[in-house]
Design brief:
heterodimer; A: about 130 residues; alpha/beta; 5-stranded parallel sheet; 5 helices; B: mainly alpha; Helix Hairpins; 4 domains; two-stranded antiparallel sheet; about 65% helix; about 5% strand
Chain lengths: ~130, ~950
């Protein structure tokens, strides 16, 4: 019996980036759902219960920070890995993201190879 | 009938009344509600100037010299004009330094010199003794005359009377007791005697009334008015000369001048005048009323002098009735008993007023400035150890009063017959005039020194004694008369009445001339030739600059003192209650809760204690006492000068500092504002940079991601490959566009953009834009129409930039127009010297809350939940910059759900010399295929 595919949620308001990430992750063997804003992302976390989320910070409505914060508030979601993928790259922003509970912070433009490797690594640990 | 006992009882009744008034006024003063705090009472008290001399002697002089009696009253009247300057300054100085007497004033000015104070006191006492004897003479004579009513009998020669039955002696003793009761019931720190002042004001009224009464009686009762009296006098060959002013006075012009000067000085420097005008003054403002009230009094009391004088001469042509007595004898001869009694009381009033005030003033000087300094210096007496000295002070004053009056009596017996009343009075005037150079010089000239004042005073007094007092004794037989006729030891040049051969002047003028020459000459000469001590220098400043500075000389003190020592010192002289009150007042003024907290004995405090003490024992003695209690270090003149220099430098420096700090504050405020602006700009710049970074990184992310995907997997199917490459291409274009726009914006905003301004027809630009966009409009099936005017619409603009704007507006309109049924209209219109271009679409419109922001950098609007609209967000911002650069305005009007209309205006170019393009073109319409 094949292990259940890991579930990944992608949230970014740039459709092209969503497309690229979706392709990459599917090719890497993950199940993928997408959202284009923070509200949608949270709704999908609730319903889809991913193992990992890739979220952009600069999104209309709720920002990536907010999504991260909300997710960390709920004990039942604490196990979900959060990866921030964003064009904001300053040190202050990085530490803000990490202090809000993100597991990884990736700045755009990213290396596709490195990103997939990081996702693999994050989802390999633990059950 | 006017019997002896009637006269005596009336006299005592009057004196009792005076005492009651004084008592009441003192009680009110103690309760803090002074009766005399009123300019009318002040002015009346000044009228103590008019004594029995005025009362009896003016008539006496007028009877002999006619109008020549006037200069003595002219002087004070003239002095009034100068009062405002001189007296006010003296008042201010005295108040501030708590001056208690004339001697204290002089001593204080010249470095708190006890020696000078003593000299002034001695001169004053000796000088005033003749004056007091005059009063005694007047009272005893008038008593004797009245006693013989109804006969007119002139009093017997003084020498014939045995001492113990001499009325004058009894008058002296009674007046001494009266004065003691008046003025020495307690010690007042400021030497105020409010009861005395009230009583004096009252007696001024009484003597005025009495004189007016007899004047009216003589003028209108005996004769028929002024005209009648003067007419008869003119008709009498002996009296006629009296009516011409200058003939009547011996010595002519010179006499008039000197007499006037003399009385001008007397009104200031007679001890009694100084006492009521300066020491007893409660409010400087009272001076203003006094300036016209006092002359009014002088006029009133002199109106009837001439009529009475002439009346007397006419009535007693034989000359055996002393003219000095006309005031009394005229009512007597006319059998007016009551009037005669009133006149006697009036004369008594005038005499007692003078005696009381003069002896109180003199006794204060004797106590504070003569006896106390000597006693304090006699270590043998160990006065420092006695806890309470108030009893001693009062005792000294009382004995001084008795002594002065007895001396007055002595002079009366020895020399009182030598002259008429007026002349005796003038001798005293001349004595006090000797104070003028030292005092007037002292308050206007900082250069007057102690030695100079001393030299001048001694010289002037010496000359006075020699030229006025000696002759009086000689004429009375106590000195050989050859002294007057041939000079001392036969030296003619030193004849007392014609010194150095200056003959032909009347005695007073002669004396005044020589004494003033000696006095002023030595005062100025010795002052200029000598130097001042530090204390003198300081006091000179304090006195002369009194109107300029605020505080006294507290700064000039260095030493250590314990507050407790100062307290016991003060208590010794003004009593424990007084010391407590003084300390409490000081503590209150500096905000210290005494006695809970200790008072610090700094320079200010010591100065305060010294001034309080000076009020009781005079400035010189106070200085001695404080110096002995506080271990002082002497300040040399250099140090005082340095202190003054330092002080003035500090003032200048602190002004500069104030100015600098104000400038600094202004500069700081400016800097702060500039800093805020910079921070704001910095923040904006940061925002801009971070947004641009974000906008650049986003397409780059797609480009990189898809490039890597394509590279990593050659086996991607064609459809996907095409899709991904398409994305790469589009994102590259997007990136390029963004970079170009950012650079463009940067150029425009920094002013480095190149603008090629030419005359441009807006219609041509619109057509060009439409032509460029027609394909994409066709692709989306959105109608595009233009409505242009027939005539050319010319503006001064860069045509490429203007095209850029129109392309931007059109592409926005296209972006938001619904496909297939979209419609965009471009309208160009002329109005009010402007051209107006509208680009209208029928898309979803813009929400009101978004409308202000769409021209901001990187702002894009659309539904928040739908995908981000393509575009950079910079287009509208740049368009606005461009339009505004051409002097126009770009704005939007939109109703949500009903499309949007973007409009801009531009100023029309001025019409050229030649007309542009003559042809009228019909309304043009281009339309894209719908």
């Amino acid at each position: 019996m094949a292990a259940d595919k890991r579930k990944v949620l992608i949230a970014d308001d740039e459709p092209n980036i969503v497309t690229a990430l979706e392709f990459l992750l599917k090719r890497a063997g993950y199940d993928v759902r997408t959202a284009t804003n923070g509200e949608e992302a949270l709704a999908l976390v609730e319903s889809y219960l991913p193992d990992l989320v890739l979220i952009d910070i600069m999104m209309p409505g709720k920002s990536g920070y907010e999504v991260c914060q909300r997710m960390r508030e709920r004990p039942e979601w604490r196990h979900i890995k959060i990866v921030m993928v964003t064009a904001k790259g300053r040190e202050a922003e990085v530490s803000k993201g990490m202090s809000l509970g993100a597991d990884l912070y990736v700045t755009k433009p990213f290396s596709t190879q490195e990103l997939i490797a990081a996702v693999d690594r994050l989802l390999a640990v633990g059950a | 009938m006017l019997q002896g006992w009637v006269i005596v009882v009336t006299s005592f009744a009057y004196l009792g009344l005076l005492f009651a008034i004084a008592y009441y006024a003192d009680k009110r003063a103690d309760a803090g509600r002074p009766v005399i705090a009123n300019p009318y009472i002040y002015s009346l008290s000044l009228a103590v100037y008019a004594t029995a001399w005025t009362f009896y002697g003016s008539v006496g002089r007028a009877a002999g010299d006619g109008i020549g009696f006037l200069p003595i009253y002219l002087g004070p009247t003239l002095m009034i004009a100068l009062w405002w300057i001189v007296l006010r300054k003296i008042l201010r100085i005295s108040k501030r330094n708590r001056i208690t007497s004339l001697a204290d004033f002089v001593a204080s000015r010249y470095g708190k010199s006890a020696l000078l104070g003593g000299v002034v006191t001695i001169i004053a006492v000796i000088g005033i003794i003749p004056y007091i004897s005059l009063q005694l003479k007047a009272v005893s004579n008038s008593f004797a005359i009245l006693l013989h009513y109804p006969e007119i009998v002139m009093p017997a020669k003084v020498a014939a009377q045995p001492v113990l039955t001499d009325t004058a002696l009894w008058v002296a003793l009674i007046l001494a007791l009266f004065t003691i009761a008046f003025g020495t019931r307690h010690l007042d720190a400021a030497e105020h005697h409010q009861g005395m002042v009230a009583a004096i004001a009252f007696e001024s009224l009484v003597k005025l009334l009495a004189f007016l009464a007899v004047g009216i009686f003589v003028t209108f009762g005996i004769y028929n008015g002024f005209g009648d009296v003067f007419g008869r006098a003119a008709a009498d060959p002996k009296l006629a000369p009296l009516l011409t002013p200058l003939e009547g006075v011996a010595g002519g012009y010179a006499s008039w001048v000197w007499l006037t000067i003399l009385s001008m000085l007397a009104i200031l420097f007679l001890p009694r005048q100084f006492q009521v005008a300066v020491i007893e003054n409660l409010d400087e403002k009272h001076l203003k009323k006094a300036i016209w009230l006092f002359p009014a009094y002088m006029v009133a009391i002199n109106i009837f002098v001439l009529p009475i004088a002439f009346g007397g001469r006419l009535h007693f042509p034989g000359g055996n009735v002393d003219a000095d007595t006309f005031v009394l004898t005229l009512p007597m001869v006319e059998r007016q008993e009551l009037l005669a009694l009133l006149v006697f009381i009036g004369g008594l009033s005038a005499a007692t007023g003078m005696v009381i005030v003069e002896t109180i003033a003199l006794s204060t000087m004797v106590c504070n400035d003569l006896v106390m300094p000597v006693l304090l210096r006699l270590k043998r007496l160990r006065l420092n150890e006695r806890p309470d000295l108030t009893g001693l002070l009062l005792g000294i004053r009382r004995w001084a009063i008795v002594a002065v009056l007895l001396l007055g009596y002595l002079y009366f017996r020895l020399a009182g017959e030598a002259y008429a009343l007026v002349s005796i009075g003038l001798i005293s005037f001349a004595a006090v005039a000797q104070f003028a150079p030292a005092i007037l010089g002292g308050i206007f000239w900082k250069g007057g020194t102690r030695r100079g004042a001393l030299a001048g005073l001694l010289a002037g007094f010496g000359v006075w004694f020699y030229t006025l007092l000696l002759p009086a004794f000689a004429r009375s037989g106590w000195l050989p008369i050859s002294l007057l006729e041939h000079g001392p030891f036969g030296i003619e040049l030193l004849k007392p009445l014609a010194l150095f051969g200056l003959a032909g002047l009347d005695q007073i003028t002669h004396a005044m001339l020589w004494s003033m020459i000696a006095n002023v000459g030595l005062y100025v000469g010795v002052s200029l030739a000598g130097t001042q001590s530090a204390a003198e220098h300081r006091q000179a400043s304090v006195f002369v600059d009194v109107f300029r500075s605020e505080s006294g000389g507290a700064r000039f003190w260095r030493g250590t003192a314990s507050p407790r020592d100062l307290y016991s010192l003060l208590a010794r002289f003004i009593g424990v209650a007084g010391a407590d009150a003084a300390f409490a007042e000081y503590a209150r003024a500096i905000g210290v809760k005494w006695p809970d907290e200790e008072l610090v004995a700094d320079a200010e405090f010591v100065h305060f204690v010294e001034t309080q003490l000076a009020g009781a024992i005079g400035a010189a003695s106070a200085r001695i006492m404080v110096a002995s209690v506080a271990k002082e270090e002497a300040l040399t003149l250099d140090e005082v000068g340095e202190l003054l220099d330092e002080a003035s430098q500090v003032v200048v420096y602190s002004h500069k500092l104030e100015q600098k700090s104000r400038e600094l504050e202004a500069a700081t405020a400016e800097l702060r504002a500039a800093n805020e602006r910079l921070k704001e700009l910095d923040r904006l710049k940061d925002d801009f940079i971070s947004t641009v970074t974000h906008e650049l990184r986003t397409p780059l992310t797609s480009i990189r991601a898809f490039s890597e995907i394509l590279l990593a997997d050659p086996k991607i199917d064609l459809a996907e490959r095409k899709k991904f490459l398409g994305i790469i291409t589009r994102e590259t274009e997007r990136l390029t566009r963004l970079i170009n726009q950012v650079l463009d914006l940067a150029k425009i905003e920094s002013g480095r953009a190149e603008w090629r301004i030419t005359r441009t027809d807006v219609r041509e630009i619109v057509n060009e834009a439409i032509a460029q966009m027609s394909q994409v409009f066709k692709d989306k099936a959105v109608a595009l129409n233009a409505h242009l005017p027939a005539r050319a619409v010319v503006v001064e603009a860069d045509s490429d930039r203007l095209l850029q704007v129109l392309l931007n507006l059109l592409s926005n309109a296209l972006k938001f127009s619904p496909a297939d049924r979209g419609r965009v209209d471009v309208t160009v219109r002329e109005s009010d010297g402007m051209v107006r271009v509208d680009v209208r679409d029928n898309g979803p419109g813009i929400r009101p809350e978004d409308q202000p922001f769409i021209f901001d950098k990187f702002r894009q609007v659309g539904d928040t939940l739908t995908a981000k609209p393509p575009g950079t967000g910079l287009g509208l911002h740049i368009s606005r910059q461009i339009i505004e650069h051409f002097g126009g305005r770009l704005w939007v009007e939109s109703e949500y759900g009903a499309g949007a209309r973007f409009s801009f205006t531009l100023p029309l170019a001025a019409a050229p010399a030649a007309q542009q393009g003559g042809k009228e073109e019909p309304w043009l319409q281009t339309s894209a295929r719908s």
